[in-house]
């Protein structure tokens, strides 16, 4: 799994790709590291990263091996955009999520240093209600010592009891590549 290309940014449901390829959706709060996740897993700099939360303001489609799309969703919980813009994002995301036939799996990226927020809990409920297969990626794991890693895993399982480490819960670091191999194997198994 080496070939990834930026396909398009989508600001309106009329712009969704016509190609009927399966989709892996990347979702999570603003500044949780979705773009860094793509760059790290694929060893590229294809996804634009920023230290400013809320940089991704469109649905960004990346085509992998010409076989499936990774869709980077705008981060939720970003306060510096207008209510109207936030509502537009939500409508766009909901229209994507309503196209259930194409979405094969959701990767919910959560910062391992913090407790899941209300928006994380709502996302978890929503994705489960749609019966979309769901994986949690605990990101920024390089910033924790061993004791804090264990605490982070315990905490996330408390919120989401269905999670099992290395089955539907993965520890990950875009900085040092921790967990990349397991995640690549998972994506390969799901799509290739």
TrEMBL record:
Q: Which UniProt keywords apply?
A: Cell cycle, Cell division, GTP-binding, Magnesium, Metal-binding, Nucleotide-binding, Septation
Q: Which cofactor is essential here? A: Mg(2+)
Source lineage = Bacteria, Pseudomonadati, Ignavibacteriota, Ignavibacteria, Ignavibacteriales
Q: Does the keyword Lipid biosynthesis apply?
A: no
Keyword Magnesium recorded: yes
Give start and end of each EngB-type G domain: 20-192
GO biological process terms on file: division septum assembly
Q: What does this protein do?
A: Necessary for normal cell division and for the maintenance of normal septation.
Q: GO cellular component terms?
A: cytosol
Q: Which GO terms describe its molecular function?
A: GTP binding; metal ion binding
The name of this protein is Probable GTP-binding protein EngB
Looking up PANTHER family in the UniProt record yields: ENGB-TYPE G DOMAIN-CONTAINING PROTEIN, MSS1/TRME-RELATED GTP-BINDING PROTEIN
* Domain of life per record: Bacteria
Q: Which organism is it from?
A: Stygiobacter electus
Q: What does the record list as coiled-coil region(s)?
A: none
Protein family: Belongs to the TRAFAC class TrmE-Era-EngA-EngB-Septin-like GTPase superfamily. EngB GTPase family.
Query: Which InterPro entries is this protein grouped with?
Result: G_ENGB_dom (IPR030393), GTP-bd (IPR006073), GTP-bd_ribosome_bio_YsxC (IPR019987), P-loop_NTPase (IPR027417), Small_GTP-bd (IPR005225)
Q: Which NCBIfam families match?
A: GTPase_YsxC, small_GTP
